[in-house]
Specification:
The chain has nine helices and no strands.
Length: 168
């Protein structure tokens, strides 16, 4: 539900849902705590609280070494190098911190393998949006062209942000 509320731009609901999930955090496995904290970071970004974004992402990062299961669900942080920095960059873009987001995207994308085409396309789309927000339209356009190529290659319109998709 917190992810849905994030997509709807309802930061306060995201925060409430994540706080409820973390209420007895000592009883939760680290993986679930990480998932709730990173989603709460998205919620606080919607309320324009950069300090809380950084605190939550840093705290989640500190738990990564404690995850000790091989269950396939909730393992995006294992599949995606720099996963939590990707989340931070996404939050920074939402906060309107274009310059900081562009810098983080540059670092994060350096470690995402070329073979992870769809993920790379999603991240590049976010990077392009951040570049536009940072007042770098030429850079944004160059990145967006790469995103479009990836979307065609992978046949994944989901790579494109909703605001970029054609309306019916």
């Amino acid at each position: 539900m917190a992810q849905v509320r994030t997509d709807l731009g309802d930061g306060h609901a995201v925060i409430d849902l994540c706080e409820a999930a973390l209420e007895d955090s000592h009883r939760l496995v680290p993986k679930v705590r990480i998932m709730a904290m990173q989603q709460q970071a998205h919620g606080v970004s919607l309320t324009h609280d950069r300090d809380a974004v950084d605190r939550l992402i840093d705290e989640a990062d500190g738990l990564l070494a404690q995850v000790d299961d091989d269950l396939p669900w909730g393992n995006a942080y294992r599949r995606t190098p720099g996963y939590l920095e990707v989340q931070r960059a996404t939050c920074y873009g939402r906060l309107g911190l274009g310059v900081e987001a562009v810098s983080l995207w540059g670092q994060a994308l350096d470690v995402v393998p070329e073979t992870a085409r769809r993920d790379r396309g999603v991240y590049l789309a976010r990077h392009a949006t951040a570049a536009a927000g940072a007042g770098e339209p030429d850079q944004a356009l160059e990145i967006a062209r790469t995103v479009a190529d990836i979307a065609v290659e992978t046949r994944s319109a989901g790579t494109l942000p909703r605001s970029w998709r054609p309306r019916p």
